[in-house]
Design a protein that fits this description.
heterodimer, A: about 700 residues, alpha+beta, seven-stranded antiparallel beta sheet, five-stranded antiparallel beta sheet, 17 helices, 19 strands, about 20% strand, disordered N terminus, disordered C terminus, B: about 130 residues, alpha/beta, five-stranded parallel beta sheet, 5 strands, about 45% helix, globular
Chain lengths: ~700, ~130
């Protein structure tokens, strides 16, 4: 419930804390690099220290061992020398010294007498030389000390590279003494450098091997660290980076239970929360935008002018209608006071009228403007307006501004003027109509010419019909011929049969005559006796004739004849023939009785209807008045394929001998000659409707 | 001498009737009539005829179909066609002309009719 209690990630204090905790100011590189670098530096430090310590240690040990060696050798050798000299075996002494060079570190072994002259040496050059002329001259005081004290002495050179061991021994007696008093000194000089360098090499090798092992271990440790920490922390960092860049779907998803995984869980939860909030914010923003857009569109598209102001009376919004009436665009007007944009005056006094907005603001009530107010456009022209202003309040009821709605009152005022304009327009239309009439007359003339072309085409098609006619005529002729042959050869006493054959011959001849007569009227070129005719009268006459001819066997006739009906310009006899044909078909379609409906009406030819168009072959123009006569029966009806051929010559649904198949073909021809149209609708079992459409006489022609 | 049996097929019932009278008057033929191709084929199936005469243009099964059906079931049975068109190759095509045993053109001259019937019957008995 309490949203404020939730942790907030965007407080500045929190961000700072995170930054300090980061602590990466000490290390300029990422953990991935800085951790191994630190390890490496630390390892190097330890290695160098250990090496240094090892070297020092080994140097000391080398010195000690050499010193030991020197001491023991000096003791042994000086003892032997004493023996050799006191027994007079000086060659033994010589041999002994020369053998000393076998020790690798021994650089020099020499023996001096009591006058510090060299008696024996590993280097023969030195034999007989005074000690002060040799490289050991500096050690002469030490020699004296050893001789006087008769004690051994070892000394290390200042650079700790050379060890000198001095050992006294009795050389013999001086000639004036019995007791041997001459003291010789044995000097063994060792060179430590080679021993030391050997030690150093060993130590370095050891250190190197050790270092290599440490390096390998470090690498392993780094790899493990890389796997365990660095990679995962990188994922965390990457997710955080994407998050910061606005990709709120980013998640780190670290597994495990260590601190990094915990951080990751916390981070992902936080990301979830942020994403949720972001989506909520987006949705809310979108909805707000849609609502605002809808409101703006609504305000902009309403026909009345709308101006909204804030509490200071400054304009915040105006729509297109307001722009048209004031002459100010919304951009110009927004921020200005209403007084600047909306100038209104009283029509009668020509004095400015107080803006209703100010009153609405001051009193907080809806204010309507008095009648006869003129709005002055930016360009100066005046528009009579009717308006009202209403305060805008928020949900708490505080006043936010005023909305003013007004409209152009001109249309109401100008209605009379408009009427006059309409009358003028009508007069112009009348002129136009007359012109159209003339055009139509020209068109009719053109159609007459067209009719002649149609007629010649009809003659051509007549030729194509010749084969059909032959077939139709030859059957009755065959009957006649066969009948005559029979009669010629007939035996006596068969009068009854002869009479029957004679009757058949007569019938066949009648049929042939009927076919020929039908054919004549079908092929007859137009010689129509045209006169303005009321179609209703023709319908009545045809019905009378048809009733007389066929009789009304249980057939109910319903007439719906429109009165008055526009006149048609037709040959009444021909049209009567058309209707009689249609009526005959209707009667024959209802052998068991039914209902016959005769209907006349006037229609306006509409575009899209059959036969209506602007081509010369179309019988009607769009908009032309047409008289329609409908003959509807409730008879047996026709199949679609029969209906399609209904107007074809010699097509009949009746048994052979009963119909010529020419009736509807003739009807079609006659209607076409009158520049009309005939159509049929039929459904098996329901009945058939035949519809004849003829052009009505229009306008003045009616009176002619 | 037994009478030859003829089946006459034409949708024009009156013509059938007059022709039957005429042919039977000669005393040589016994004529059975049928008003459509279907009826004719049915009757031909029931009892054999020495000759079939059929109109060419009829609603439903026309002369062509009747001729084909008869020639399929009995190739040696003579069939004579009659039609209003004697020289229209579009109507009576060459194959029909070849298959039929005779063609008579309407209106029917009686002598011509008898001659064609005799010729057709003779062709069958010689073959």
């Amino acid at each position: 419930m309490n949203r404020n209690a939730r942790p907030s990630y965007d407080q500045p204090g929190a961000a700072e804390t995170l930054h300090v905790l980061n602590g990466n100011r000490l290390l300029p590189w990422s953990l991935r690099i800085s951790v191994p670098l630190l390890l490496l530096a630390f390892g190097l430090l330890i290695g160098v220290f250990a090496l240094f310590r090892g070297v020092m240690d080994s140097q000391r040990r080398a010195e000690a061992s050499v010193r030991e060696e020197a001491r023991s050798t000096a003791t042994v050798v000086s003892g032997l020398l004493e023996y050799f000299y006191l027994t007079g075996q000086e060659f033994g002494a010589d041999l002994l010294i020369s053998q000393q060079s076998s020790h690798p570190a021994l650089r020099l072994a020499l023996v001096v007498d009591d006058y510090n002259d060299v008696l024996l040496a590993t280097s023969y050059r030195l034999k007989g030389q005074a000690l002060r002329d040799t490289t050991l001259a500096a050690l002469q005081p030490a020699f004296e000390r050893v001789r006087q004290r008769f004690s051994r002495h070892e000394a290390l050179s200042a650079d700790r590279q050379t060890l000198v061991a001095l050992s006294p021994f009795l050389l013999g007696s001086t000639p004036d003494q019995i007791r041997p008093s001459r003291v010789g000194v044995l000097c063994l000089q060792y060179d430590l450098s080679s021993v030391k360098s050997q030690e150093l090499v060993d130590r370095l090798r050891q250190s190197g091997e050790f270092g290599l092992v440490v390096l390998l271990l470090s690498l392993l440790a780094w790899g493990y660290f890389q796997h365990l920490v660095t990679r995962r922390s990188e994922r965390l960092v990457e997710a955080a980076g994407r998050m910061a860049a606005g990709e709120y779907r980013a998640r780190s998803r670290l597994e495990g239970s260590d601190e990094l995984a915990q951080i990751s869980h916390s981070f992902d939860a936080m990301a979830e929360e942020i994403q949720g909030r972001d989506e909520a914010v987006r949705t809310a923003r979108d909805q707000l935008a849609v609502a605002k857009e809808w409101l703006l569109i609504t305000l902009r598209s309403i026909g009345d002018a709308v101006i909204a102001t804030n509490v200071d009376g400054r304009i915040q919004f105006m729509n297109g209608a307001a722009t048209q009436l004031t002459g100010w665009t919304e951009q110009e007007a927004v921020g200005r006071t209403l007084r600047e944009v909306f100038h209104i005056i009283d029509e009668a006094t020509r004095r400015p009228v107080d803006s209703p907005v100010e009153r609405a603001l001051a009193e907080g009530v809806v204010v309507a403007l008095a009648n006869h107010t003129l709005l002055i456009h930016k360009d100066g022209h005046e528009t009579p307006i009717a308006d009202s202003a209403a305060p805008i309040r928020n949900v708490e009821g505080a006043l936010l501004g005023v909305v003013m709605v007004f409209r152009d009152a001109t249309p109401e005022r100008r209605s009379r003027e408009r009427e006059r304009e309409l009358a003028a327009a009508e007069a112009a239309a009348e002129v136009e109509r007359r012109r159209a009439e003339e055009l139509r007359a020209a068109y009719d003339k053109l159609k007459e010419a067209q009719g002649q072309v149609v007629q010649s085409e009809k003659l051509a098609s007549l030729g194509r019909l010749a084969a059909g006619i032959a077939h139709e005529l030859k059957n009755p002729l065959a009957i006649v011929l066969q009948g005559v042959s029979y009669l010629k050869m007939a035996e006596e006493g068969t009068e009854e049969r002869q009479r029957e054959v004679l009757g058949m011959v007569e019938e066949a001849v009648t049929r042939a005559d009927k076919i020929i007569r039908g054919l004549l009227s079908f092929a007859r070129p137009s010689s129509l006796n045209l006169a303005p005719t009321n179609l209703n009268a023709v319908v009545e006459e045809a019905l009378l004739l048809a009733e007389r001819q066929f009789g009304l066997r249980r057939i109910a006739v319903i007439k719906t004849l429109r009165e008055p009906l526009p006149m048609v310009f037709v040959d009444a006899v021909q049209i009567e023939q058309v209707l009689i044909n249609l009526l005959a078909n209707a009667f024959q379609a209802m052998p068991a009785g039914g209902q016959l409906t005769l209907r006349t009406e006037v229609q306006t030819a509409a575009k899209g209807e059959a036969g209506v168009g602007l081509r010369t072959t179309d019988p009607f123009r769009p908009g032309q008045p047409v008289v329609v006569c409908e003959v509807r029966d409730t008879g047996v009806g026709m199949l679609p394929e029969q209906l399609a051929r209904a107007f074809d010559p010699f097509f009949t649904t009746k048994p052979p001998g009963e119909g010529t198949g020419l009736g509807l073909a003739i009807v079609h021809t006659i209607v076409e000659l009158h520049r009309g149209a005939i159509s049929m609708e039929s459904e098996v079992g329901k009945g058939t409707t035949a519809r004849v459409r003829l052009p009505a006489i229009e306008g003045r022609r009616e009176q002619r | 001498m037994t009478k030859q049996r003829i089946l006459l097929i034409d949708d024009e019932a009156g013509l059938c009737k007059v022709m039957k009278l005429n042919l039977e008057q000669t005393g040589r033929y016994e004529v059975v009539t049928a008003c459509s191709g279907e009826e004719g084929l049915q009757k031909a199936k029931e009892t054999p005829f020495d000759l079939v005469i059929t109109d060419f243009i009829m609603p439903g099964l026309d002369g062509r179909a009747v001729l084909k059906a008869l020639k399929t079931s009995r190739p040696d049975g003579p069939v004579v066609l009659f039609s209003a068109y004697h020289d229209d190759p579009g109507t009576i095509t060459a194959d029909v002309r070849h298959e039929a045993d005779g063609i008579i053109v309407k209106p029917l001259n009686h002598e011509q009719l008898l001659k064609t019937i005799e010729q057709a019957l003779a062709r069958r008995s010689t073959s």
